[in-house]
Amino acid sequence: MQSFCAPSLIFPQQSISNLKTLTFGIDELDKLFGGLRLGELVVFHSSWMCHLLSELLCVRSQLPYVKGGLGSTVVFIDGGNIFDPYFISQTARQLSLNPEETLRSIWISRAFTSYQLTALIIEELPKILDREDSRLIVISDITALFCDSDVGIWEARRTFNRVSLFLSELVKQRNTILVVTSLSPRSERKRRLEQYLLGRASVVAMVEAGNPHVKITLERHPSKALTSTSVDLFSEKLRIQPLLEEFMEV
């Protein structure tokens, strides 16, 4: 796990086909999503399970293409201050990856105000992509800091609209996958802000966590008719940090 303050090294851009996909390694989810493709802005919203899915992808992106990964480092902007190195390490072990090397391949930076988050995204994110050419970007709970009572509603909406537009253009220009989460509780302000993001996303999924079921509903997808739009996963004991082997199809 590394911070953004790395040496300013420039690496040549790699030519990677858009046909390459990032998979979840869970059969039902891979059938539902058909894999995540380069150039897509992906939004998971609702429950805490959104975050766990995004961290699962952080690990799987480091797998080679033949195993459903991207063979790539990851950029993680932690707007929710919820990055969990324990879950990353556990998942890496299950995928026969070295936990320490896996964490070192994740470039992480945290924001504590909406102003810091905006600067990280618009000013710093392009720089780290220049250095690392990472094929996966994750931004956790992107709307939370814009819901702070110290930020006026009109300012929040104006700035968040700018941020979401910037991100939608960035993923296409850089040929990356961007996974963004927006977690509960969903206030009226958060719902309004989410509309900017959802309107520009390529893939949108609502992730609802009950006990013991987790329901994932695909609300938007660029290349498939939404005839079968949801899948239920079951955990014998749903926990904050579930192990992957606990999940199975209902």
Unreliable residue runs: 5-18, 236-250
State the major sheet. 9 strands, mixed
Radius of gyration: 17 Å
Quickly count the helices.
7
> What is the terminal-to-terminal distance?
35 Å
**Which H/E pattern describes the elements?**
EHEEHEHHEHEHEHEEEE
**Proportion of residues in extended strands:** 15-25%
As a percent range, the share of helical residues equals: 25-40%
- The helix/strand class is alpha/beta
Number of strands: 11
Report mean pLDDT, rounded to a whole number. Answer: 86
The shape is globular
Q: Largest sheet, order of strands side by side?
A: 5-4-6-7-3-8-9-10-11
Give me a quick take on this structure.
The protein is 36% helix and 22% strand. The protein has helices spanning 27-33, 49-60, 85-94, 99-104, 114-132, 153-174, 188-200; strands at residues 21-22, 36-37, 41-46, 74-78, 106-110, 136-140, 177-183, 203-209, 213-220, 230-235, 247-249.
Defining traits:
36% helix, two-stranded antiparallel ribbon, disordered C terminus, 9-stranded mixed beta sheet, 7 helices, 250 residues, globular
Structure overview:
36% of the residues lie in helices and 22% in strands. The chain has 250 residues and is an alpha/beta fold. The strands form two sheets. Strands 5-4-6-7-3-8-9-10-11 form a nine-stranded mixed sheet, sandwiched between helices. It has a two-stranded antiparallel sheet with strand order 1-2. It has seven helices and eleven strands.
